[in-house]
Design brief:
mainly beta; 6-stranded mixed β-sheet; Immunoglobulin-like; single chain; 14 strands; 4-stranded antiparallel β-sheet; 44% strand; 1 helix
């Protein structure tokens, strides 16, 4: 089995248990910029504008929750913003978290195919060069997503 096939199998298995955790692509040394996981009528996708930065550069994260069910689905309660990404060291120590004020609304109904999106600028000014870090992103209101764990974990390099 090629190392690229092993990486692909590892990512698929990770998504199956609810946590997409990519390894570097053996051919290019780069990390995936987009990850996605689906279940219970929802698809959660997140993407980064880059996976390699110099200290002080900002990483742009876009998260999208899409109703992939054939019928309308309601998020109750509706929380805006619906994600709160964090930066972690390889040992799982949290180094940064985006903690904006959150607004709770009674509910938000998405028709089939409709998406809910958020963009977050992630700072890297306090990270050390030569280190690989993790960005974890999950919808905050996960009660409507149970029993699927919609955590996506990206790796990125500070050069």
């Amino acid at each position: 089995m090629s190392s690229l096939a092993a990486i692909a199998i590892g990512v698929v298995l990770a998504v199956t248990v609810g946590q997409a955790f990519p390894s570097a692509n053996a051919n290019t040394g780069t990390f995936p910029r987009q990850l996605s996981v689906s279940g219970v009528g929802w698809n959660f996708t997140a993407s980064l504008n880059t996976t390699s930065v110099i200290p002080g550069q900002t990483i742009l994260l876009e998260a999208v929750l899409t109703n992939i069910s054939p019928s309308n689905q309601t998020i109750a309660p509706d929380i805006d913003p619906f994600v709160n990404p964090g930066i972690y060291a390889q040992n799982e120590t949290q180094l940064w978290a985006w903690n904006p004020p959150q607004v709770n609304s009674p509910s938000n109904t998405l028709v089939s195919g409709q998406s809910y999106a958020a963009d977050v600028a992630i700072p890297t000014s306090k990270l050390r060069s030569g280190q690989v870090y993790l960005i974890k992103v999950v919808p905050i209101s996960t009660e409507f997503l149970s029993p699927v764990d919609f955590t996506l974990v990206f790796q990125f390099l500070v050069t």
